[in-house]
Specification:
208 residues, alpha+beta, DNA Primase, Chain A, five-stranded antiparallel sheet, 5 strands, 8% strand, binds zinc ion
Length: 208
């Protein structure tokens, strides 16, 4: 027996609506998921950076301490032998034992300095390079939606939003998001946008 539905048109309409609703839910879900994932990834990266730095510094400091403890008696011995008939022994100890440890200590101390003060980490970057990169207009990397007298507005790079709450101040050339409170300068912005480290970001901004 064949069932004829006189309201077949309505059924089509219901199916279409259900389909559209489903699509809307999916898009919504994807957006939410992306937001949550972005925040989560950001938090994890920040945490990891801190954790790696902490662990590395712990290791480097213990190494520095170890080298200094090795050097101390050697230097004492070298000092005692200097100017005596065993001057040759002092020189040999200095050259063959003390100097190699001093070199290792220097390497460790340089890395410690680099972790504590990353600006000085990376020999090719000069202070002028970094300052120049910081002064490069941050808005060139953003899709600016509107301008005020003192700032430019864009959608936040850290999350999705309908109304731009991410701004760049003209005076300081720094960004700030009123939604998520993230802030920084042009170098930070390029590091975040293109997933670059400090040195690569500076070079990228200076186009080299
Ligand atoms: Zn934001």
């Amino acid at each position: 027996m064949k069932i004829v539905n006189p309201q077949i048109g309505d059924q089509d309409w219901i199916i279409e609506q259900a389909y559209l609703k489903n699509l809307e839910l999916q898009t919504d879900y994807r957006k939410k998921l992306k937001e949550v994932t972005n925040d989560f990834v950001q938090d994890v990266i920040d945490e990891d950076r801190g954790w790696v730095k902490g662990r590395r510094l712990e290791y480097l400091n213990s190494k520095a301490k170890e080298y200094k403890e090795l050097l101390s008696p050697l230097s004492g011995l070298v000092d005692k032998l200097k100017g005596t008939t065993l001057q040759w022994l002092a020189e040999s100890i200095q050259e063959n034992q003390a100097v190699p440890i001093m070199k290792k200590l220097k390497t460790v101390e340089l890395e410690i300095e680099g972790w504590i003060n990353p600006v000085r980490n990376g020999e090719q970057l000069s202070r002028e390079d970094i300052d120049r990169a910081r002064e490069e207009d941050a808005t060139q990397y953003l899709d600016i939606k509107s301008w005020d007298s003192d700032k430019a507005w864009a959608s936040c790079i850290f999350h999705e939003e309908k109304n731009p709450s991410f701004c760049v101040y003209k005076d300081s050339n720094r960004y700030h998001c009123f939604s998520c409170n993230k802030n920084g300068d042009t170098i930070d912005l390029v590091m975040e946008l293109y997933n670059k480290n400090f040195k690569d970001a500076v070079n990228f901004i200076l186009k080299r």
